[in-house]
Every structure is written in C-alpha cells, then in structure tokens.
Amino acid sequence: MNPITHITEHQHEVDSNNSYTPGFKYHYETNSLYDLSTKLVCKNSYEAPKITSLIVTSTVGEATGPIIRKGKWMPVKKNKLSEATTKKPKNLHLTARRALSLLLGTTINERKYRVSRPSLGVRSGKLAAYKVTLQKKKMFFFLERFLEAITKENASLTSGSNKGAWGVKHKDGFPQIELKENIRSKKKKASDFINDGSSNKKVISTYFDGNGNFHYGVPSFFIFREIEQNPEFEALKNHGFSITIKTTAKTDQEARLLLSSWGFPWSLAKHSEST
C-alpha cells in the first residue's frame, strides 16, 4: 500500500479538542512510533526519534536592489549564462514573500545581513532571506503537501531518463540541479554559500548533517500547483527555497528511518551499502 494514500485516508481524524489532526501526525502516533521503537530497540516511546520543527528559507539578497562594491553604489554584474537563470525580475523579493505566505499560511520573518562584506557585495542591514519556522500541526500539513509534490515529480520520470517535469536531475527520488562548470572563474557572492535550490546555486550533495537533521534545496516554487498556475508568480519559475527538518534522532540512519515511515523516496538498502 502506498504510504501517502494510507495516510490521507485518516486525514480527518479528530482529537480530544474537536480539531482536525494532520494525517502525517496520526500515522506517526498510530504506526510509525511503535515500528521505530522496535527497530531501534528503544526502552519506551519517548526515546523514538521525532520531528521537532521545519524551517523554510528563501534567499532574495540579489533581488533587493544594487549592492556596494569598493565603497560605491554599483549594479550587480550580469553573468554570461542563460537569461532564464540570471535575469532577476523587479520586486522578486516581494513575489517570493507572497508565495511563502500562500504556502505556509503564517508570518514571514526577514533575515538581514549583520556585517558588511564589500568583497562579497554585502552591506549590513540589507535583506538577505526570508525564514519561517513551522511546528506542530502547520509543520505536518506542509510536510504532507511537500512530499506529495515530490512524489508527483518523481512519478513523471520517463523510462531510461533521469530527468523530471522541469528538466532537473534526480537522485534518490529528489529533484536535483544540473550543475554547469564555467570556464571563467566568477567572483564569489554571499548568496553562493546559501543552498536555496535555485538554478544559479550549488546544491548540497548529502541530505543529512550528521546530527539527524535533513536539508534539501527545492529547485523551484513551481513544484506546488497553486504557485505554478498563478500568473502572479511566473517570476519564481527559476527561484527556489530550502527546507530543514530538525529531528531528535541521534544519527543520520535514525533520521532516515523516521522520514522513510512517511514514504520519502529513497532506498535504505542502497544507503546502507554506500555507508
């Protein structure tokens, strides 16, 4: 049975407060908790790994206007790449903020640069990214929608091809960006070190940080249907965001077992052989 289909069948379970319980939370409490406690030989259910919070971040530093270079106001230099990956529409940061508000349904926090770095084109006080921390029900609701979107994208793979609907490579079922090495060395920017999944950023090679936390850069906002079908968000086709799932797992293997209980698209056997 498909884990996602099984979970959505209990999407409207009612708790003691007469409010709806997310399907992923119900599945964890009724099925995954006992299964994880057995596999990890936990003394009680409190020792089993669980998700504590989910962090969504979208970098918009290059879209908020000109930057300071060598003490003077100068526009950002254009790269000699395709226009689709380098062209930054006006007010892109406002569009990204509205998209995050639509997806997450909560307050969006602004993250600003604290220290000026002229060599990287950064000045203190400038908007760097939007960050949202989800917990409890909102976290499970968004996690379910995210996994459904990833599963649909993974299902769009054709036989003999490792590319999905938006022309990006896939690894373990997750969309990945196809990196192209430039002949000329470019000047490093502050945004190059932040993984938000955008086409002009490098994507991390591993999903875990060694402490049981999961990181993933979504290549495009268009992975969600409500964003793709809205003409207002057309500028976000090549702009992405990052997702960090914090867990109480002590190791990456425990975190992988936890996320696999919800049907995350990867193979545990393949991972264990590589490690």
UniProtKB/TrEMBL annotation:
Gene3D superfamilies in UniProt: 3.30.1440.10
UniProt xrefs under Pfam families: Ribosomal_L5_C
Membrane spanning residue stretches: none
UniProt keywords, alphabetically: Mitochondrion, Ribonucleoprotein, Ribosomal protein
Protein name, entry field: Ribosomal protein L5
Ranges for domain Large ribosomal subunit protein uL5 C-terminal: 205-266
A single GO cellular-component term on record: ribosome
GO biological process: translation
Family, similarity comment: Belongs to the universal ribosomal protein uL5 family.
Superkingdom of the organism of origin: Eukaryota
UniProt cross-references to PANTHER family, sorted A to Z: 60S RIBOSOMAL PROTEIN L11-RELATED
Signal peptide stretch: none
Keyword Transferase: no
One of the record's GO molecular function terms: structural constituent of ribosome
